[in-house]
Amino acid sequence: MLASGRGSNLQALIDAIGEGRLHARIVGVFSDRRDALALQRARDAGLLAEALRARDFDTRLEFDAALFERVDAVQPDLIVCAGYMRLLGQPVVEAHRGRMLNIHPSLLPAFKGLRTHEQALAAGAPVHGASVHFVTPELDGGPVIAQARVPVRGDDDAPALAARVIAREHPLLVETLRLFAQGRVALQSEHVHLDRAPLPAPLQLDADDRLPA
Question: Which member of 96, 104, 133, 193 is catalytic?
Answer without folding.
Answer: 104
